[in-house]
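User: Reviewer 2 asked us to show a designed sequence for the structure in our supplementary figure. I'm pasting the structure tokens here. Could you produce the per-position amino acids so we can include them in the response letter?
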């Protein structure tokens, strides 16, 4: 028994949608810092390459305006302030495209893996985070060791990429000394930007390794044991005793509603003690008779009591009562196989009403009602 209990506590089951939703509410979503770093570095490098000319022209313009000043402008505070404001504006405008890319990267990078999620619980202060012993455990845990190896791996990947780039651009860099100053500056900037883009692209390899690891760790953290699933089911659907009480109340409400329909019945067919069914039929508005209520034992007795109180005719026909009870649901029409048998009973009831009003002869009691053999049941509900 102890082994079975232990095995039931192993977190081998996939997380339920409720647990995933609860984790998101607490701010627990899969995140990859390497993916965010890759997005920021790559877009920054591409942005520099794309907007380098625009930024350079703006900076040259700021420099030209700032250093070509007349004597009067230098000693005029309002002119200097306006030049300063213009320089700041032009500087911000020169950086605006690149900063926009970086803002987009800083937003898209984190939500690319776990989606957009804002949780106030994630930023709530927790005293457990300030526990020095817990901090030491985290520092010397297996997870920290894995993170250390991951960091070493990142350094090695970037180092190898740097060495390869130096070899790739070596001849171009050696030729810079033979070029003019202007040409060598432009050429060196091109080399630097291309090398930066290539070096940033190497982080894609790191992110491609880190993303599956983060997804695996996230799913592993949310895994559930069988006991967790049972507890969640109790919390979601309610405890068994509560659900049982709810079902009992629902049955009582349904039974009260069913009993309230009995006074509208035209006839009650009984077993005579074990079953009772209440039927209603209006030839002008209904195509076939409908069963308003049915019950066994105590409920059957209650149906008969209500019928007597409202002067509803009670017919004893055990075979027919069982046939209707087991083949028809409440508020449903009777099956076609019982049309003839029900017609015999209803004909008796309607003729009896006329007789009591002084019209017509007294009808014969329907003792031999014909029920098809395939619709005959015993008291336990099994076909005869």
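Assistant: Here is a per-position design you can include in the supplement:
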């Amino acid at each position: 028994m102890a082994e079975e209990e232990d095995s039931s506590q192993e977190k081998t089951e996939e997380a339920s949608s409720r647990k995933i939703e609860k984790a998101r509410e607490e701010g627990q979503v899969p995140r990859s810092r390497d993916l965010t770093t890759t997005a920021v570095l790559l877009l920054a490098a591409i942005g520099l390459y794309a907007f380098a000319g625009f930024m350079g022209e703006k900076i040259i313009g700021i420099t030209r305006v700032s250093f070509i000043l007349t004597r009067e402008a230098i000693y005029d505070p309002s002119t200097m302030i306006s030049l300063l404001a213009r320089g700041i504006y032009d500087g911000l405008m020169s950086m605006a495209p690149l900063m926009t890319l970086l803002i987009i990267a800083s937003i898209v990078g984190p939500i690319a893996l776990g989606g957009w999620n804002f949780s106030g619980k994630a930023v709530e202060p927790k005293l457990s985070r300030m526990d020095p012993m817990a901090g030491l455990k985290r520092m010397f845990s297996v997870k920290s060791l894995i993170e250390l190896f991951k960091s070493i791996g990142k350094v090695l990947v970037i180092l190898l990429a740097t060495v390869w780039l130096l070899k790739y651009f070596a001849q171009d860099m050696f030729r810079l000394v033979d070029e003019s100053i202007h040409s060598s500056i432009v050429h060196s900037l091109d080399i630097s930007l291309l090398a930066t883009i290539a070096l940033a692209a190497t982080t894609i390899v790191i992110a491609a390794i880190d993303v599956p690891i983060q997804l695996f760790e996230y799913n592993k953290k949310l895994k559930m044991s069988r006991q967790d699933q049972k507890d969640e089911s109790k919390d979601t659907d309610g405890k068994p005793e509560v659900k049982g009480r709810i079902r009992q109340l629902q049955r009582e409400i349904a039974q009260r509603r069913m009993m309230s329909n009995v006074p509208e019945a035209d006839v009650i067919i009984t077993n005579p003690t074990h079953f009772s069914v209440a039927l209603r039929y209006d030839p002008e508005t209904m195509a076939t008779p409908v069963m308003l209520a049915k019950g066994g034992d105590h409920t059957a007795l209650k149906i008969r009591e209500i019928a007597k109180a409202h002067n509803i005719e009670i017919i004893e026909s055990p075979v027919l009562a069982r046939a209707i009870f087991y083949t028809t649901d409440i508020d449903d029409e009777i099956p076609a196989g019982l049309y003839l048998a029900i017609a015999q009973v209803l004909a008796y009831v309607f003729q009896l009403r006329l007789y009591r009003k002084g019209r017509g002869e007294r009808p014969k009691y329907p003792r031999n009602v014909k029920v098809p053999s395939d619709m005959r049941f015993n008291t336990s509900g099994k076909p005869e």
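For the response letter, you might also mention the following. Confidence is low (pLDDT under 50) at residues 1-8. The beta strands are 267-270, 275-280, 290-296, 313-316.
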